[in-house]
Write a structure and sequence with these properties.
It comes from Nocardiopsis metallicus. By secondary structure, the protein is mainly alpha-helical. It folds into two domains: 98 residues, Orthogonal Bundle (Arc Repressor Mutant, subunit A), CATH 1.10.10.10; 37 residues, no CATH class. The protein is built from eight helices and two strands, in the order H-H-H-E-E-H-H-H-H-H. It has a two-stranded antiparallel ribbon. The radius of gyration is 18 Å and the shape is elongated. The structure holds iron/sulfur cluster.
């Protein structure tokens, strides 16, 4: 199982915002450059995270992105669950749909396995991901994504 690029970008962003200094407001463009993702992907992640109440976007001169208190306390499991959605892990309902789907037991087993994966991430908070060593790496990222 692999996270979608959208979820990965979103998690990179919340981790970087979690170590922002006092008064430091990254713009979407700067965050995209630092975290080595295309601007359009970052803009979509920002919009979704703002909608979920995890990131605040301040507009205007001196504006930028802030992690909300809810974002800081959120579990990684809750974020991943929300962003990944509840679709099948395999192509059960693709076009054409899988001919086994009426009697398939694998489909349910995969859904259960995914829930176990999410449940293990429920124990992990955004805050807990930014230990001092990670904090150091995240804080010194330059806008070309390389360490200072
Ligand atoms: S075999 Fe089962 S899990 Fe796989 S695609 Fe078909 S219905 Fe889905």
């Amino acid at each position: 199982m692999r996270l979608t690029a959208f979820t990965d970008v979103s998690l990179r962003l919340v981790m970087r915002l979690a170590v922002a200094g006092e008064g430091e407001l990254l713009t979407t463009r700067t965050a995209a450059a630092m975290l080595a993702v295309p601007y359009t992907h970052m803009a979509k992640a920002v919009a979704r995270l703002a909608e979920m109440g995890l990131v605040e976007t301040r507009r205007g001169r001196g504006g930028g992105l802030l992690l909300t208190e809810a974002g800081r306390r959120s579990s990684v499991g809750a974020i991943v669950r929300e962003l990944e959605g509840a679709g099948d892990l395999a192509g059960c309902e693709d076009d054409p749909p899988c001919p086994l789907r009426a009697a398939c037991r694998l489909r349910g087993a995969l859904a259960q396995a995914r829930e176990a994966f999410y449940a293990s991430l429920d124990e992990v908070t955004v805050e807990s991901l930014v230990s001092p060593s990670v904090r150091q790496v995240l804080r010194v990222l330059r806008e070309d994504g390389s360490p200072a």
